[in-house]
């Protein structure tokens, strides 16, 4: 196989070029179909239980993703002044006209209702701010009204009177970047000196997607340029450099083309594929080109030299490629689809780069003109500062082997401590740099309001008992026609309450022309249906509403949430205004009928639909809205743990269960899954690579030695993350497997060459001296190419890219250093067993 | 710059709109010459819709169906007495379903020249309250009907324009005099030529899109008076539809005026509310 491939590429170089070009062109043609996906929800598989429930809840309560627009006036007079409010009113009207905005559900001062007292015994329902106020007194009045309404206070107006907000629900979260841009356009036209901010998770996510495009357009070519320049520095020969560059380009284009062509969306992770593949792809061809340049003398048969070189390098190259690929493939074990796709395609790309190198480079060398070959060979053989430094490193570390051992033991110890300090946390808003307008908006608005992040605690009451009772009554109907008509309704797909309402209508229509006896039967049945309906309407009962009230009280006292809104708040507010407007009447009525009647009044407003965002029309399920001032998963975790503990101490009534939904909660779920998944993938990749090493070296000791540098590197990197206090987030989590896949290469090359050289010299000291000539410089050169190849990521406008760039460069540097410093020492300590003849 | 663009756009739109409606208007004018004047049409429509007989009662049932097919029920008796045709009138609305709101009562003394007097009784809270409503275009007990759809919109609040006369209907455009109190830009009513009942009404927003519509599905003659038996209002923005059904309507029952006072809130006048057995 290997031989025939080689023969083909050397005898038919033109075919190799044509095929490579063709495959690249075909796959490259698919790239324009790119679909970017920045929705963190997709971090969970579509059928993942929490995600399914979240979307079910969104449907059930007609909830939309929300863009938050805030206006802040920091002057003495605050935001409640005629001019500011006129601007807000104008902006609100403008936003309502934007395509894709769910105008009826918009929340702003001018779109909500007010219930207030108008003299004794009279209540007034009206728009809170139908028109912008003309006088300061009117403006103050609006502020006072908001303060009376718990659902609006700290949501629409800030406690310090400096800020007000507009909540803009949108139909499709993928449109939030466009909509936020249009809102910004409206803001720019306003006659106002107030500060305006736009935030909310959908904006952060969609804006991120937009910037991702920009980022890919800049970073990937920049990475190519950096690699090109580096190789120029090392080799100073265009023909030499062209080969690895072609391999890198073809690998990236084919891999990305296939990913897009196979219909996968490009997620934050997969947008980094080109930057990962480029440095990795050039390494193998650099090996071949260097070795060829070393071995080729004018007059020698090229084919022979190529065969020799390939024969020599094939196994280590195959192994390093497979181990790197295994590192990435192990990401398939995480339950996070975008990470799986990333792992699969980078792994594929690495193997593709290997195959391309083996086929294309020989053809390329054959096709070169003799003159070019000479120029190739004349370079590449100078001793630079790198080589000098390396020799010192080799000598020094062996001489101070005890010190080196102590040093690495200390590093490991400190790293382990660092790892225990790691904070697992992520927040899509933090994907932007601290001075990005979204981060600023997030900070300012969450400072003024009770929070722009939502989570929902959804309570559901079991309705099966009510249904069973009712069905017994249905079974007992003697009139068969009637029974089957009722059964027909009960078997349709509607909700139980809807079915019961349908049955009641049917029965009442029949009542119309029924005789006395039959009327009695029908009325009995209607009563039973109604009883069932009332039972199903569990969240109209004062007892459960009081439980919810207590839970909210505890949440408020915990300090973990900015605010919570629930059906209980609605009922209490309406009751207070219906009664006296005094705080003493801010209570839940004593009977279910009282609650139902208060809610009927609430619905007699301009926005009756608001109620259904908190409770279903059956009143069998209710959502408690939590507003959080932070989108950090960690903060959400605290809330979840608090509620778990609270519900353990204060159990809900039998048949009622509580479950979480909301974006902040989902983010927490996938973060948890990822941490667990990453540990699995790291462990399994570790075992697979260890086994491969033992097979490759046919020695358990060498296998273990090969794992030593990467183990220390991984410990060091994560220790560093703990020490620095950087949150363990998605990009960080992915790094572990990458480290494993990439840094094993250095150990393979080092150990393989050390064993080879020992065979020739038979002396450990001499072996080490030789090791720090050519082999060490090859390893260092590769490490530098890869490490610096990732640095363009540092200039990215988005934080995850910077993180990955920084840590990958560090990983490469650290693992090269560990390999070159520690492995000689380790070999020295174990030389009796390692080099027994 | 932007505002200039906007104003140009605005003018362009205006041109477009007048350009489009001009032929319609002239057609309307021609037709209108041979028919009744638009004010007369509107006045008749108002009368047959809200002032049939001198008084009346009817059972009413509302079914609110949301976009997902969930159904809510509202059932009530409505009792009416006119003080003057096309003038003041009184309503008493007593709820029977859902059963948890049974006994809830609305009393309305409707005035043409000033705000209505409205009272509310909630038995579950043992509470009698006067309501002062900012406007009449709020939901009627959570349905897609507005309070104003039930009690009638004063024709004087709009200016009327006869757009077209077809074989069966007058098509009348109604533009509010005071835009600030309503959510529509205008509405177009399709008024039956024979009965003068508006059979469909479409409400348009500022963009000229229909966002709400009323349809009459069934008309019956009751004591010689054409009476809407079934109608529905669709909220095209939320996808919600409310079906209203009247049953056992009777006119001219002679209900005395003192029934429409706050005394009836706690003690609804059973003899007037219950339908006569046939």
UniProtKB/TrEMBL annotation, chain A:
Keywords: Cell membrane, Membrane, Transmembrane, Transmembrane helix. It is a multi-pass membrane protein. This is MMPL family transporter. PANTHER family: MEMBRANE PROTEIN MJ1562-RELATED, MEMBRANE PROTEIN YDFJ. The chain crosses the membrane at residues 212-234, 241-262, 268-288, 309-333, 345-367, 398-419, 677-697, 704-724, 730-751, 778-799, 805-827. It is found in: Cell membrane. Residues 243-367 form the SSD domain. It comes from Kangiella aquimarina. The keyword Zinc does not apply. Its main location: membrane.
Automatic annotation (TrEMBL), chain B:
Residues 87-266 form the Uncharacterized protein TP-0789 domain. Keywords: Lipoprotein, Signal. It holds the Pfam family LolA_like. It comes from Kangiella aquimarina. Residues 1-31 form the signal peptide. The lineage of its organism: Bacteria, Pseudomonadati, Pseudomonadota, Gammaproteobacteria, Kangiellales. It comes from the Bacteria. This is Outer membrane lipoprotein-sorting protein.
